[in-house]
Design goal:
With about 500 residues, this protein is of the alpha+beta class. It is built from 23 helices and twelve strands. Strands 7-8-12-11 form a four-stranded mixed beta sheet. A three-stranded mixed beta sheet has the order 1-6-5. Helix 7 crosses helix 8 (about 135-155) and helix 16 (about 285-310) packs antiparallel against helix 23 (about 480-490). Mean pLDDT is about 80; it is low at about 70-95.
């Protein structure tokens, strides 16, 4: 039945205009009448919608006159139906009626709740004042201001909800997804990124009713994804657009990537015997296989040195309200990472309940596997099964099946071995010292860091200037992805097989 109300929008407005002789007052009263009718539809059976609408219209008109302290005669007869019943343009009125409700839902709670209380719940000013613990004058002011806001926004509700493409990860230790895992969160973050907005302004920018924004904003503030200052909200992390990302990559010209790849190859070849001399399991793997570990290890070790000496990079990650630490790394325009992105994940196991140790996973966007990552979070069973020589001995056949399914082990000469290099703590320390020895990469890395920093300075809002170093630290590792892709293009580094889980980028350090 609610759809039938639309045919009354224009007649009710004419009814009000005829009696009030003011377009603004007629709009206010007609909105009030229609909201009361809509509320009444849910209260019980209405035998005659026409009679009900006009009864409400006359009663609300009478109440308005009472409020103005004028004499009033309430007319509830059918004589008022005769001259206006035929005046209707349903399609045009339907759009205006919907615009009223869309505009109402862009108001913040302080206005919306009072308007609903007055027009829908039919409470008087004094009752609303007691309900909200405010003065009657404040209620009157908010009713007036709320009506003005609705009137202003009736013609400005063309913004529709748009799907936001944004990939989010972190440079640190927390779960960024839980604060930016929905389209609603992403839309909010994008809306108040350039400058702080009120909840009403966010609603207008996103097309999302304020009712749905309130809880979302509270959750995002808790997760340090949004900062609140008074009545305004601002995105608390840097969002990199596709155009900005392209500018940042401009430093990595084809010539720079090729030169860096040549430098890496020369260093690996010149130090091959030193690498073998460390004696870790896997040191004799083919170079084409090892490059997926050696290349990122070189860049990661260089980054650690740069962090200690560079004034541009932060020395430690900021603590977060939820107990984690670090920064959001957000890229707009993509939902999945491609081969130009790279990172490093660690999966640590303490001595409690088994052997201590950790996996180190050097991933690129093209090789990261969510299923493998989930397995590595609870892979102590594999750690306990590995010997110093890399041989595997599983106590449970289900564990063995899980290890094979996730590419953690392989069979050679009738025996099962780990499918990745395995280090003791001492040998891993020697491996890191080897990785820090390439001074040529260190020099290139410093130029790359400076280039990234300037690019972020040019695009990040000034209020987020203190986050630039954290984002540079997180994105700088992408240099290794470009070099690996170059080496794969030359046929020197193994290319992942589409049907197999890729684990050639894994290290295992065992106690």
């Amino acid at each position: 039945m609610s759809g039938e109300i639309l045919r009354f929008v224009e007649p009710v407005y004419r009814f009000c205009l005829k009696r009030l002789s003011s377009h603004a007052d007629a709009e206010d009263l007609s909105q009030e009448i229609l909201l009361c009718v809509l509320q009444g539809l849910g209260r019980g059976e209405i035998r005659s919608l026409d009679a009900y609408v006009w009864k409400i219209a006359h009663n609300r008109y009478a109440k308005l006159l009472d409020a103005r302290k004028r004499d009033v005669t309430v007319l509830c007869g059918d004589e008022y139906l005769l001259d206006i019943a035929a005046e209707s343009d349903e399609e045009e009125n339907a759009e205006e009626y919907q615009a009223v409700f869309r505009a109402l839902h862009t108001l913040s709670a302080m206005y919306r709740e009072i308007l609903v209380g007055y027009y829908v719940r039919r409470l008087d000013v004094q009752a609303i004042a007691r309900l909200h613990g405010i003065s009657a004058e404040t209620v009157k002011w908010r009713l007036h201001a709320g009506r003005e806001k609705i009137r202003e926004r009736m013609d400005h509700m063309e913004k529709t909800y748009e799907r936001i493409q944004m990939h989010v990860m972190c440079n640190g230790c927390f779960g960024p997804g839980q604060y930016l895992d929905t389209q609603l969160y992403k839309a909010i973050a994008k809306a108040c990124y350039e400058s702080p907005l009120t909840i009403e302004e966010i609603s207008l920018a996103t097309g999302v009713p304020t009712l749905y924004l309130e809880d979302a904003l509270e959750h995002m503030v808790w997760g340090d994804a949004i900062e609140q200052s008074g009545q305004k909200y601002a995105t608390a992390f840097i969002i990199t657009s596709a155009a900005q990302r392209k500018k940042m990559q401009s430093f990595l010209s084809e010539a720079v990537v090729k030169e860096t790849a040549d430098t890496v190859l020369h260093y690996v070849e010149a130090t091959r015997e030193k690498l073998r001399g460390i004696g870790f399991y896997g040191c004799d793997f083919p170079v084409s296989r090892l490059l997926h570990v050696l290349v990122p290890a070189l860049f990661y070790a260089t980054a650690e040195c740069a962090r200690e000496t560079s004034a541009l990079l932060p020395k430690q990650r900021p603590p977060r309200k939820d107990g984690g630490n670090g920064w959001f790394i957000a890229d707009e325009g993509i939902e999945d990472l491609d081969g130009s992105f790279a990172g490093c994940n660690r999966y640590d196991y303490d001595a409690k309940g088994g052997r201590p140790g950790r996996f180190v996973q050097y991933w690129t966007g093209g090789t990261f596997d969510g299923g493998l990552s989930k397995t590595l979070r609870d892979a102590r069973f594999f750690l306990d099964a590995i010997g110093r020589d890399g041989a595997c001995s599983f106590a449970d056949s289900a564990d063995a099946a899980k290890a094979f399914a996730n590419g953690l082990c392989e069979t050679r000469d009738g025996r099962t071995y780990a499918a990745m290099p395995v280090f003791t703590e001492k040998k891993y320390g020697a491996f890191l010292e080897w990785a820090k020895g390439c001074d040529e990469i260190g020099a290139l890395w410093q130029k790359w860091i400076e280039s990234l920093f300037r690019a972020y300075q040019a695009c990040a809002p000034k209020r987020l200037a203190d986050q630039i170093g954290g984002n540079v630290d997180g994105c700088s590792f992408n240099l290794s992805a470009n070099v690996l892709r170059e080496l794969q293009g030359r046929g020197l580094a193994d290319v992942p097989e589409e049907a197999c889980v890729f684990t050639k980028n894994l290290l295992l350090i065992r106690g």
